[in-house]
Amino acid sequence: MALNPGGASYNWNYSNDQRDGFSLEMTGTVVSIQEVQAREWDQQARRPGKPKTWPDGNPVWNIRMGFAQPDGSLKTFTFAEAGKKQMSGEKPSVHVSLYNLTGNMMDLMGKTIHIKTWPNNPTTGQAWGFGNPRLFDVELVDDVVYELKVPLPDEYTVPKLLADDGAHGGQPVAQTPQQIQVPQVPPMQGQFYAPPMPQQYAQQPMYQQPMPTIQAMPPQTAPMPQGMDPAVATAMQMAGAQNVQPVGVYEDIPF
Asked: pLDDT tens-digit profile of 27-56?
């Protein structure tokens, strides 16, 4: 798998002894770890076919690790992700074996690993195939680090890579766009927002309507009752007495 047409293949050939580079063992320093979309196996062509998906359309992922070899070349190892039966130990899984080396797959970056397999099942002698998945032994190699002599190709630097028949290197999974955070303005308390006044009006004095002049009304003086001494009536009105009325004078005393 390479971005350029006719590019070199870096896959570790552990299954076909009729092809170049066949080897049942590999040792290298981990330089890349990523998820790549799996492909259906074409039985007639004896090669990977169309991209593999789950019934809901989501891609089926494999894991691909890149290794710097002792000679500085790049070698890749692709394997299936562990499922529930593999994680429970019911079925063997190289994914689980590699994970158990450090307890975290990404902690394998920069570590040197030795991987070994066999032409047939070493216990039963049965050929590898459906129902009899290939077994691998893995172990860490201490105090040894190998480096690549050439830059790591771009398709090995992305976390996830979709299978793409139109591009040999595959198609990187699009990252989710970040949502724009709009600051929330708290509601104003006890006041209202007034938009700024245009400059041409701000320089002019504000027109104010003159307040009407209210003339004070003279105090109303109750009319002086008839028959009352004017001095007495005036004194009572000044004291706040209202509706001053004269007291009738009886000319005859009834006793």
From this structure: 999 999 999 999 987 666 566 778 999 999
Taken as a whole, the chain contains a residue count of 255
Strand 61-68 versus strand 112-116 pairing type: unpaired
Q: Which residue range forms the structural domain that includes residue 68? A: 25-167
Q: What is the model's pLDDT at position 9? A: 82
The answer to whether residue 243 sits within a structural domain is no
Residue with tokens 């990252």: 175
DSSP-assigned states of every residue in 156-197: GSSSEEE--TT-TT-EEPPPPPPPPPPPPPPPPSS----PPP
Q: Is residue 86 part of a domain?
A: yes
Q: How far apart are the first and last CA of the chain?
A: 143
CA distance linking residue 109 with residue 211, whole number of Å: 86
